[in-house]
Amino acid sequence: MKPVNSVLASFGTTVFEVMTRLAIEHQTINLGQGFPDEDGPKSIKAMVDQATQEGPNQYPPMLGIPELRQAVAAHNKRFYGLDVDWQTQVMVSSGATESLAASILALIEPGDEAVVFEPLYDSYVPMLRRAGAKVKFVRLQPPTWDLPQKELEAAFTDRTKLILLNSPMNPTGKVFSKDELTFIAGLTQRYDTYAICDEVYEHLIFDSVKHVPLITLPGMAERAIRIGSAGKTFSMTSWKVGYLTTAPKLMSLIAKAHQFLVFTTPSNLQRAVAHGLDNEQHWYTNLAVGLQAKRDMLQGALTDIGFEVMPTAATYFMNADYRSLGFGGTDVQFCRHVTAEAGVTVLPVSALYSTPDVDHLVRFCFCKKYEVLEGALDRLRKFFAT
Ligand SMILES: Cc1ncc(COP(=O)(O)O)c(C=O)c1O
């Protein structure tokens, strides 16, 4: 048989799948998986039923139903004071993942350079490389994950087509500060590059920290693409409804990629998400309050057990260094060890780097019921006490 596409063939099975399989095999409490174990608001579930019964259940408009595009525009205005025209600047996609893919396909020409921060969400690099980009990695260092301005500046060249920015950031739980964003905005303007902004965790943010979308900074309206996710905002990760906001010129181009990728997104889910954005603001702002309490509980308990826990300003991920517990192996070995021996599964953070040399951190996901978190902590306490 002829060789298949070499870029995709070069990526192995994801660590998420490997750890999940191990978790099932050992029947562990799985804090590696990055999704909530409780569904979002009842009203939006009811709206899916209603919309399905009422119909239409045929292809909705390619850019998304007007109701949802209007709701996304209104949400931009309500939270960030952003004025956008819902008809020319908002597009609905099949999850944020599809918005990311469509934006990358719309912008990258083979040979272009793309700047990303690591550790990073696992879909970016395969899509960038498949589109023909040369990926430049800029590493954020634990425990503070501050923006390394010199390294970032050095990563930009005349061939840089775009930067992909994830704030609030998975897996670090970092929220980029206004100063950091201003620095990034300056570079994109100096080098005339685009910015794809993955903001799926925009509402999962703690301690009154403020999320500032890059697109709201001076000079960024024409070059930034802001991407959100109903899956994250409403704890409905299976729905795969995403939305992007950008300048009309970019939107019409990204819409072409979307047209040939999926064309559209289920209309009943779109109606439900529109209802949620317009009417369930309290639900998703309270979600962050509840998550913050879980973060505090987990952080305290892991510290008591002996982990060195990194600060978590947002998202539902917490990173911890386990070397203080006396384990000398890599993060992958640690994850296999606690899965098999302690009955708790966590994720090795090295899997989210381009090269596995930061291999002493593990990621805990805390969007789980208290009894699940307590159960995992009990097991870890017992295991590390012996
Ligand atoms: C940073 C980041 N972006 C995008 C996504 C995917 O969003 P969606 O499910 O809406 O495609 C995730 C999911 O974990 C994520 O962590």
Write structural notes for this entry.
- With 386 residues, the chain is an alpha/beta fold.
- The chain is 45% helix and 15% strand.
- The chain contains 15 helices and 13 strands.
- The protein has helices at 6-9, 15-26, 42-54, 66-80, 86-89, 95-107, 124-130, 149-155, 178-190, 230-233, 248-261, 267-279, 281-305, 331-342, 370-385; strands spanning 29-30, 90-93, 113-118, 134-139, 160-166, 194-198, 224-229, 242-245, 308-309, 317-321, 344-345, 347-348, 361-365.
- The chain has a 7-stranded mixed sheet with strand order 2-8-7-6-5-3-4, with helices on both faces. A 4-stranded antiparallel sheet has the order 9-10-13-12.
- Helix 3 packs antiparallel against helix 12 and helix 6 crosses helix 11 (248-261).
- The longest helix has 25 residues, at 281-305.
- It is globular and about 60 Å long.
- The N and C termini lie far apart (54 Å).
- The model has no long low-confidence stretch (mean pLDDT 96).
- Residues 34, 95-97, 121, 166, 170, 198, 200, 229, 231, 237, 240, 242 line the site of pyridoxal-5'-phosphate.
Produce the secondary structure layout.
Elements: H1 6-9, H2 15-26, E1 29-30, H3 42-54, H4 66-80, H5 86-89, E2 90-93, H6 95-107, E3 113-118, H7 124-130, E4 134-139, H8 149-155, E5 160-166, H9 178-190, E6 194-198, E7 224-229, H10 230-233, E8 242-245, H11 248-261, H12 267-279, H13 281-305, E9 308-309, E10 317-321, H14 331-342, E11 344-345, E12 347-348, E13 361-365, H15 370-385
Parallel strand pairs: 1-11, 3-4, 3-5, 5-6, 6-7
Antiparallel strand pairs: 2-8, 7-8, 9-10, 10-13, 12-13
The structure holds pyridoxal-5'-phosphate.
